[in-house]
Amino acid sequence: MARNHIAVIDFGAQYSQLIVRRVREVGFFSKLYQPSELAEAGEPAAVILSGGPRSVSEVDAPDIDIDLLRKLNVPVLGICYGMQLLSKRLGGFVAPGHTREYGPARLLPSQPGPLFEGLSPESQIWMSHSDTVKMPPPGATVIGTNQEGVPVALQFAPDWFGIQFHPEVSHSHEGMKILTNFLKLVPAAEPFRMENFKEELITMIRERTHGREVVCGVSGGVDSTVLAVLLKEAGVPHRAIFVDTGLMRKNEAEDVQAQFRQLGVNIQTVHATSRFLGALAGETDPEKKRTIIGNLFIDVFWEAAAKVDMLAQGTLYPDVIESATSGSNITSKIKTHHNRVDRIMDLAKEGRVLEPLAELFKDEVRALGRTMGIPDEILNRHPFPGPGLAVRCPGEVTEDKLSIIREADAIWMNMLKSTGLYNTVWQACATLIPVKTVGVKGDERSYEFAISLRAVTSEDAMTADWAKLPWDFLGQVSNAILNGVKGINRVLYDISTKPPASIEWE
Questions:
Q1: DSSP state at residue 122
Q2: Which of 115, 116, 154, 495 lies at a 20 to 30 A Cα distance from 440?
Q3: What are the E-state strand segments in 301-457?
Q4: What are the φ/ψ torsions at residue 375 (nearest 5 degrees)?
Q5: Are 75 and 160 in contact (CB under 8 A)?
Q6: Cis peptide before 158, with omega less than 30 degrees from 0?
């Protein structure tokens, strides 16, 4: 997309993607680039250099084209590794510190200036580095120190800065104010408005498709729903296919079809329960179950799609970043996303894959959906895993077990919604524990399964904390499940954080 955006150069920091998010929260569009891709950023309105795990003193340390950076003539902010790299390339001296500094420290602004305007005389910051700027470059000014008097902020030029801490994390208490102050120095940046972005997406879709039919898969989730409605608004020929795997929640197939009728999108439903349960019969290994489901889903979808002129996917920006690899190994590939499998990548090489949402985060996709009139009830739906209830059924997946999970899940979801708690958590689920326990029902001994309830709070699902829901409410849910679901005589509440636990059980 052509715009005066903020280019974030990724040197491998765990927080690089978060910098992009924070810049967008301030109101400007931002994208992540590898150091070798600076030229591909075009004419950005500003450049932010991220932190990174390497030392600038290493022979093969990630570098930046400092001459090109100068030619851009835009404000620059170096964070951690970015500050050290700027210091070194501009003629300063950087050396390893006595110890690696990680965790909270205090910021004491020591010079008046635009970056720290309106900041407190002292505030908490978050450090993560091993190198230290022993001697600033010629002409640089120390504008901030830590509680021990060590320089942690430099001004290299009127609009070039370096900071030895992470303003993008919540542990830096005034970090957002610092980023906002920096972006005030960027008059060329155009504010990011979702309504304008939607029109750009529609124009792009029409130009890319040239009247060809577009096929997309829908699940009823936020991403695929927004994608399908966007294709409809663009007015291009399209087909939406919903594969009922039999691993869905209670009445989900019917609900999905009703949802798309409400939105005016025609969908083709493929009923494939027997194929999926047959393929999963006897399998207990979690990864093998995921592989079976993923491969079979593609087979079923491809059979239903028949001839595919163009394939549209609801791939989001985090999916693109997680699936990417860097030739210099600065950024590691986290996982192969299901939208990045070989069969789809072959189509992409032919220019036949359309990913209109690939520059957006989840919250931005929801905002895009609101501009198209999609109800909040749909947009605020919790994430649901691609393999469905199979990842909430440890051990072999059977129809009997799925039936128990569906009934417990329906009670759990309905009670969260009826009490207004649904929108206070990121995700909630009910998982069958494949161990039977002794209980008492109607004065008789019972020997049945246990259900584990889970609800978590999170910003992006990379980390999560268990939701502190009212105990009285949890007691009511437990009673409802024990009285209403056959095959269950024990209800547990999962109080594990991520990490070390994952949100789903498999």
A1: S
A2: 495
A3: 310-312, 353-354, 427-441, 444-457
A4: -60, 150
A5: yes
A6: no
Eight-state DSSP code of residue 423 = G
Helix or strand run (H / E) with residue 85: helix 81-89
- The C-alpha atoms of residue 356 and residue 504 are separated, in whole angstroms, by 28
The pLDDT assigned to 338 comes to 47
Q: Which is nearest to 239 in space by CA: 259, 218, 222?
A: 218
How far is Cα 9 from Cα 44, in angstroms, rounded to an integer?
Answer: 12
Residue 268, beta-bridge partner list? 241
Give the CA angle between residues 82, 141, 124 to the nearest 5°: 65
Specify the 3-state DSSP secondary structure of 275: helix
Output DSSP code: residue 191: B
pTM for the model: 0.75
| Phi–psi pair at 316, nearest 5 degrees | -105, 170
Classify 7 as helix, strand or coil. strand
Average pLDDT, the chain: 88
Q: Which of 418, 461, 163 has the alpha carbon at shortest distance from 319?
A: 461
Active site residues: 80, 166, 168
Which residues pair with residue 453 across a beta bridge? 430, 493
pLDDT tens-digit series, residues 401-434: 999 999 999 999 999 999 999 999 999 999 999 9
Can you say how many angstroms the Cα of residue 298 is from the centroid of all Cα atoms in its chain? 23
3-class secondary structure, 139: coil
The amino acid occupying position 68 is: L
| Inter-residue contact 154 to 142 (CB < 8 Å) | yes
CB 493 within 8 A of CB 456: no
Q: Which helix (H) or strand (E) holds 348?
A: helix 342-349
Mean pLDDT of the 66-70 span: 95
